[in-house]
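Problem 12. The chain below contains 486 residues. Write out its predicted structure in token notation.
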Amino acid sequence: MKRTAILPLTAIVAACSVGPNYQRPANLPVEQVRLQEALSSGTFAPTPLPSKWWRVFDDPELDRLVEKALTQNTDVRVSAANLQRARALLSESGAARFPTTGVSAQGTRSRSSTSSRTGQQGGGSTSQGFTTNYFTLGFDASYELDLFGGVSRSIEAARADVGAAQAAVDASRVSVAAETARAYAQACGYGAQSDVARETEALQARTLDLTQRLFSAGRGTRSQVDQAQVLVEQARAQIPTFEAERRSALYALAVLTGDPSTAIAGTAAAACRKLPVARTVLPVGDGAALLARRPDVRQAERQLAADTARIGVATAALYPSITLLGGITLGGTKLGNLGKSSSFGYSLGPLISWNFPFSGAARARVRENEAIANGSLARFDGVTLTALKETEQALARAGGAAERKAALLRATTGSSDAARLSRLRFDFGADSFLQLVDAERQRATTRAELAQAQADLADAQISIFKALGGGWEDAPPIVSRSTTDR
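Solution.
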């Protein structure tokens, strides 16, 4: 049967597809998708989210790392391979629209024997054999009429699976971009905190030196020297922890970009001591754009569409299947006879098959797929609500982190001034040693808290962009490897 004759037929029977027709779930009301945290804070702006949000931090090394991760990360490569598989399955489902054909050729040589008795009495017998050759060529074709839309629904489900797989690729890109930025920020943050600890150690060492000189001159006590020594060692003890965490973040960063852990050594990221913090009002868009952009929401919606279509596939199995069969054969005892009219044979007719659903198994499969679709609908609703929740939480935490950093910045300025004045007053005998130690401790504490607050703010800002679900729109092509490349 020609393809041009099939296409009108499939268009007609597509209207007879059994099972529910998919309808996308209605959007939430506008008042339910407003980003309340963004509306109530001057830290955020309702302007559209940029496709490459990491550039808001204005850090060339961060830009390079994220771009590299989007092309080489192994999780992104896995999701891309799953997308290729889904597209292949769609092509496989679409092939059921057209006839299946087969060509066969066979040659056989057979021998049969006959026996006849000779002589008058108990004489022997003679055996005669006949050897024949037979050659056949055949062409077979079959086409299943999609009267109840089983094939159409199967293609519909496979097409939705492709959409879900594409959304999964985008989701992995969002996650990889955010986690790369987070690992880079952690490495820089721990480096900055290590530097603060070293500076604090140096300041405390100066106090220790002063205390020891005063003790040697008879103006202090051994207890004062010991207390100053404690402050030095407390500051020094923090440095190895910060350095270990910095290296740990660098190892994670290397793997995120698709490199061995040791490849990060000697890079600009390894030397980073300045946190990537956005210093402008963050563009966050609105709730409606958020739900349209988030890949996990799109993935859940496409999965719901696929599961709804599979209800139709299971329902179509309740009805008879009609297949048109046809075949042409050429047969003869000699190869030269295959082209003669006497060698021609054919067969043509429909095949009707029906797995009677009286056992209840087929109907149970319909109910099973209905339950799966109901679960997918609940999952879609849950993903939608989670997307809004995660964004509001990230905005709230970022706003709090910004306020905390501002307060600690003021506290650090005040504690540094107080420590400097206390040292001058101690030198002139106006302040006691305990007052000096307390001022030094307050300065060290506020400096450490400020460094931590700066790291928390960078992490919170990155969490906002991850929750907003951007970063996949203009992603670079994925560098894939094939099993033949090994």
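Discussion. The radius of gyration is 39 Å. Students who got a different answer should revisit the alignment rule from Section 12.3.
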